[in-house]
Amino acid sequence: MDETRPEVGEGKPARRPVPLWWRLTVGGVIPLLAAAACLVVLWSLVPPVVFYPLYVLASGTLIIVGVVWLAAVVFGSIRYGWRRVTLVAPVIVLVTVGLAAVELPGRFGWWVSKDDLQQAAVACADPADGADLRSRRIGVYRVYSVQRVGDRGCRFTVEGGLVDSVGVAYLPGERPYLGDPRRGGEIGYRHIEGDWYAFVQRF
């Protein structure tokens, strides 16, 4: 009878020590890049309509970071075994998706800006100097133009969208068309609260 029975676990390769460069890459560099891209994504969702160029740029960066993360995780799992540090970047992305799903960036933008917008709407005017206006911010919104609507209304065109003009409008006593614009030059509104509406003007 063979007396040289192997001990339990004998023959299994020992787990290699995790090098510092891999820990820093997966637990530091990649999460930081993911967090930066996610913050830009969230910022692109602050305007009344998504600021698409910024959103696409940040989303593309996030995809590239995701590919690098996946390669690092596969490599590390094969050589060093699974490590919890690999979950940091996915958690950041999932939190971002959750915030975007409940429209928190847009709500935040409106909440921070509405008091300043209300004051600007009361004294609504269309400045002759458009250069000064383009550098102006009301709340968190970068304002491109201000236009009087009727006797008491005001429309603020702000940064956002792609080729269509987008913004917010103060329309007391008005009942504007709600929905997407149907033809070039037409404005479609979405109610925000009270006498305030978000709008898109078709290019």
Condensed summary:
By secondary structure, the protein is α+β, with helices and mostly antiparallel strands. It has helices at 20-44, 52-80, 88-101, 104-122, 130-134; strands at residues 137-138, 141-149, 153-158, 165-170, 187-193, 196-201.
Task: Provide keyphrases for this structure.
203 residues, alpha+beta, 2 domains, six-stranded antiparallel β-sheet, 5 helices, 45% helix, elongated, disordered N terminus, transmembrane
Could you tell me the radius of gyration in angstroms? 26 Å
Count of strand segments: 6
Helix share bin: 40-55%
Flag low-confidence runs: 1-9, 126-134
Measured distance between first and last alpha carbons: 88 Å
Shape: elongated
Number of domains: 2
Adjacency order of strands in the biggest sheet: 1-2-3-4-6-5
Q: Helix-strand pattern, N to C?
A: HHHHHEEEEEE
**Averaged pLDDT, please?**
86
Helix/strand structural class: alpha+beta
Strand portion: 15-25%
Biggest sheet, in brief?
6 strands, antiparallel
Our count of helices gives 5
Organism: Rhodococcus parequi
Transmembrane segments: 20-46, 52-75, 87-112
Keywords: Membrane, Transmembrane, Transmembrane helix
Protein name: DUF1109 domain-containing protein
